[in-house]
From TrEMBL:
This is Quaternary ammonium compound efflux SMR transporter SugE. It holds the Pfam family Multi_Drug_Res. It comes from Lutispora saccharofermentans. SUPFAM superfamilies: Multidrug resistance efflux transporter EmrE. The gene is sugE. The keyword Endoplasmic reticulum does not apply. The chain crosses the membrane at residues 33-50, 57-78, 84-103. Its main location: membrane.
Length: 106
């Protein structure tokens, strides 16, 4: 359950990061409200996961999921570059997330 909570927190981090783009510096009301709600929910699920996971591991995985998700959505939604070298380095982040999960499987 702790890992599921952490994944949810990471996915919500992706949502609020993308929401920041849509809020246009918190000048758009609905995207701003949704972004803030996403932040609160993401931090809440992270706090639940932290009850049973090491801080460094949980935080690294949370930000890693958020980073990878944000890059993917940036490519899809905002036509950001998807060149090979960028994808390779995002792959390194994914490998790091998986590696941290395996060495922290308690």
């Amino acid at each position: 359950m702790k890992w599921a909570l952490l994944v949810i927190a990471g996915l919500l981090e992706t949502c609020w990061a993308v929401g920041l783009k849509y809020s246009q510096g918190f000048t758009k009301f609905v995207p701003s409200v949704l972004t803030i709600l996403g932040m609160i929910a993401s931090f809440y699920f992270l706090s639940l996961a932290l009850k049973n996971l090491p801080l460094g591991t949980a935080y690294a995985i949370w930000t890693g999921i958020g980073t990878v998700g944000t890059v993917i959505l940036g490519i899809i939604l905002f036509k950001e570059p998807a060149d090979l070298i960028r994808l390779v380095f995002i792959g390194f982040i994914v490998i790091g997330i998986i590696g941290l999960k395996f060495v922290s499987a308690h």
